[in-house]
Amino acid sequence: MDYVSLSLLIALSLSAITFLFFRSTAAVSRRKHRPPPGNVGLPFIGETLQLISAYKTENPEPFIDSRVARYGSVFTTHVFGERTVFCTDPETNRFILQNEGRLFESSYPGSIFNLVGRHSLLFMRGPLHRRMHSLTMSFANSTIIKDHLLVDIDRLVRLNLDSWTGRILLLEEAKKITFELTLKQLLSIDPCEWTENLRKIYMRVIEGFFCIPVPMFSATYRRALQARRKVAEALSLVVKERRSEWEMGMKKNDMLAALFDSGGGGGDGGFGFSDDEIVDFLVSLLVAGYDTTSTTMTLAVKFLTDTPMAVAHLKEEHDEIRAKKAASTALEWEDYKSMPFTQCVINETLRVSNIISGVFRRAVTDVDIKGYTIPRGSKVFTSLRAVHLDLGNFKDARVFDPWRWQKTSDTTNFMPFGGGPRRCPGYELARVALSVFLHHLVTRFSWEPAEEDKLVFFPTTRTQKRYPIIVRHRSKVAKQCKD
Ligand code: HEM
Questions:
Q1: Record-annotated residues binding heme (predicted)?
Q2: CA 140, CA 148: separation in Å to the nearest integer?
């Protein structure tokens, strides 16, 4: 090749490289100012109906799978009256959750605001949120559970299981247990007629979360608001009485006492919490721990029932613990710490069922993600479910396999309790309650489904018929086998 041709070739190659470089840079910069791709569906309703019909089935995954395949792991849709960016990969979700208060803030619908109250932790922001989140954590951390809460959890679970016989609706039983545990932890009140009445009213509040939140159109929502007022009145009386006891130096070891202590006393002092603020705070804790823990208890049992080898493994683990103790002796912290397979079952239940399938945030400024820009003010949904059920993150991700947790200690892609500053402050408490519940269940009972029941995911994750099962005392089963 002569000198002229060589120079020409080099010049042409350089211009081609330069052209391609500028074209791709321009494309990235153009994309950068574009919102994530997607389809916003029909006017007003967007893709809400597609989402609801998918989540009312046992297999809602196609809703997200098909959009991820088409648009990538961050896509735009329009659901529940608003354009929403769905995020389905672990890095983006972590980034969003960790930037709470800086680039994003939590965003709950107004209907929830009316039901939990404006002084709830869910709606707090900034320094007040940080302070109250850490107060809640400090009340539900492992030292407090070990020294103080475990004994009540054990006693109340046992007490409830004492009355089990024949056919029961497991979800209802689990809800009763969870409500009683929470009231004990918050207010030191043991189950009695008052707690049972409060629970009945409170269940009407919960119904309000899953209906059309417009009083004019929905009797359920009206009833829920009324019930919320009644619950607040009942709690206010307790708070008032306890405040005067606290002022006289009478201390109890519960969340209410921690709230009095942290504020230095009454709201009129300027830096303490008023009774109304405390009541809202207590209601939000009741709401946050109630459905989540009780549904996880129920689903753990459902998945176990469908996986007999896991039941056998679990029984072995708990029989061994019980063999070292008298039948009526309470579980201790060391017992809880020697339940490795139980923790695998809990992890796997949380991973597969995703009681909180994801959390909503709102962008407080334009945020660049994956080469696109999420415009300021946009609603964002970080889907925990999509991460947990992605075949790229977990092998055979859609199969319940508790043993997978024996092979790995890597929990990078596992976020059932969320992340960042709003990470669930009740995560350890929930784990302990679940472990104690499973212990007493498998050491005392055998069970079988009373009828077919199936999982659905809208409006929340649960089984359609509240999981009816038939329970038999293990001692009786053993005797029958001998005879
Ligand atoms: C299996 C049971 C539970 C699951 C799966 C769960 C899951 C979650 C998740 C994903 C969040 C994050 C919400 C967000 O980022 O916006 C959260 C927040 C929260 N959880 Fe839990 N939770 C459970 C049990 C509990 C319990 C027992 C309590 C009682 C103390 C509790 C209290 C809270 C509170 C107060 C928040 C709000 C935190 C904040 O906004 O700062 N949770 N939970």
A1: 424
A2: 10
Residue where the block lists tokens 């469908």? 306
Residue by residue, pLDDT tens for the chain (483 residues) are 555 565 656 666 656 665 555 555 555 555 568 999 999 999 889 999 999 999 999 999 999 999 999 999 999 999 988 999 999 999 999 999 999 999 999 998 777 888 888 889 999 999 999 999 999 998 889 999 999 999 999 999 999 999 999 999 999 999 999 999 999 999 999 999 999 999 999 999 988 887 777 777 788 889 999 999 999 999 999 999 999 999 999 989 899 999 998 874 444 444 588 999 999 999 999 989 999 999 999 999 999 999 999 999 999 999 999 999 988 899 999 999 999 999 999 999 999 999 999 999 999 999 999 999 999 999 999 999 999 999 999 999 999 999 999 998 888 999 999 999 999 999 999 999 999 999 999 999 999 999 999 999 988 899 999 999 999 998 765 555 555
Of 94, 96, 349, 424, best ligand 1 pocket probe by most atoms within 8 Å of the beta carbon: 424
According to DSSP, the residues that pair with 381 across neighbouring strands are 86, 360
Does residue 285 line the site of ligand 1, with CB under 6 A?
yes
Q: Is the CB of 417 under 6 A from ligand 1?
A: yes
What is the secondary structure of 150-177 as a DSSP string? Answer: HHHHHHHHHHHHHT--EEEEHHHHHHHH
At 139, list the tokens. 């009340």
The residue nearest atom 7 of ligand 1, judged by CA position, is 417
**Residue ranges of the binding site:** 424
| 147: DSSP letter | I
Give 180 Cα–ligand 1 centroid separation in angstroms.
18
Q: Looking at ligand 1, which residue's alpha carbon is closest to its atom 9?
A: 417
> What does pTM read for this prediction?
0.90
| Locus of tokens 């329970």 | 471
Is there an atom of ligand 1 within 6 Å of 124 CB?
A: no
CA of 204 to the centre of ligand 1 (A): 21
Residues with Cβ within 8 Å of residue 326, at least 6 apart in sequence:
none
**Cβ 274 vs Cβ 267: under 8 Å:** yes
Tell whether ligand 1 has an atom less than 6 A from the beta carbon of residue 425.
Answer: yes
